[in-house]
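Support request, please re-run this one:
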Amino acid sequence: MFGPPELAEDAFGAGASEYLCVPWTLAELEARIRRISVCRIAVPSGTIIVGGGVLDGPGGRVPLGKGEQASLYMLWQKRPSSIPREALEKSFGVSPHPSRSLDEAIMRLRKKLDEAAGISGLFRTRLVSLRNNGYVLK
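Re-run finished. Output below.
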């Protein structure tokens, strides 16, 4: 939500999770965008922070492609619900034909998550296929 500063308290009281006071500055808007476009994934070795095209975790910094970051953010936002294959294919930018394109993209993403976590094989059980119905991040 946005509006004059005197309405901020009422907005939060009505259930708003965010309020931008008018007039706003570009710096404030950019800072808010950076804050909400970052996700944190808890792993046994610490936390992986996803944002700015990288995974930053206990195992180090690992670069992500644009489709990988968008797909991971979608999976993170919707957890524990699943994301349909079709939505992930579009997000990753892969073709549904051959049918293994998405599965291969997910496998590469799992390896990057494992590397950032510093734990081999961790995301094999946390980024799970739902038998041709999609994927879920646990």
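The chain has five helices and eight strands. The mean pLDDT is 89.
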